[in-house]
Amino acid sequence: MNTGWEKFNVQSILIVRNFLHYLSRNNFVMRSYKILL
């Protein structure tokens, strides 16, 4: 039970980190797009 919870914690942290990285990358693309316009 404890190991399962830790595994779930690590998985959720990875998902959140990937999501934040995706958002920051999209933000960077939008910023560059606005600068180009």
Describe the protein.
The protein has 1 helix and no strands. The protein is mainly α. It is rod-shaped and about 50 Å long. The model has no long low-confidence stretch (mean pLDDT 87).
Number of strands: 0
- Mean pLDDT rating: 87
**Tally the helices: what do you get?**
1
Structural class: mainly alpha
| Gap from first CA to last CA | 54 Å
- The share of residues in helices is over 70%
- Helix/strand order: H
Rg over CA atoms, rounded to whole Å, is 16 Å
Question: Largest sheet, if any?
Answer: none
Low-confidence stretches: none
Q: What is the molecular shape? A: rod-shaped
- Beta strand %: under 5%
